[in-house]
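Researcher: I've been going back and forth with a colleague about how Oxidoreductase MhqP might be arranged in three dimensions. Neither of us has a model we trust, so I'd like an independent prediction. The organism is Streptomyces cyanogenus, in case that matters for your notes. Sequence below.
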Amino acid sequence: MTCYDRRDLGLLLLRLGTGGVLAAHGAQKLFGWFGGHGIEGTGQFMESVGYTPGKASATAAGLAEAGGGVLLALGLATPAAGASAAGAMAGASAVHMPNGFFAQEGGYEHAASLGLSAAALAVTGPGRLSLDHALGHVLDRGWMVPAALGATAAATALVVGARNRRVRQQREGEQEVLFEE
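Model: Here is an independent structure prediction for Oxidoreductase MhqP. You can compare it with whatever you and your colleague have in mind.
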């Protein structure tokens, strides 16, 4: 008889909470559910904050959040799920960074918390109350953790770096127009 311990229950609760919130945010972007704006509206927002092309950026963010969230909640492919969700939250944090830390001021607190939780789950694994465990960890091997986190970190650095350059160039262009007037 298998006995689950506090660690397994704690990881299940963390996976369900983090994964559920991420999945809901992704569904807002992809489908317009829960008061979201769907691909069209989210794409317009993504363009306005420097992520181009907007629709592709909205789709990528929505899939990383919804897909990563559902997989985290299920405890399936945990390294890839946690890494993809953490990458999406790093992108969201970049948008909110100018507003400081606290969410009440529009800061990056919420995105950072979700991203860190997702990354922590990728590192610790899903626990025994998971599909990964039930399937013999075929999608949760030790080597997958650094591979998933490393690939996601590289891709996120490229995407966020390009976005930050666009935003900086746009601000410089706006300042030039102000000085000319």
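Researcher: What would you highlight for our discussion?
Model: I'd start with this: The mean pLDDT is 94. After that, consider the following. The radius of gyration is 18 Å.
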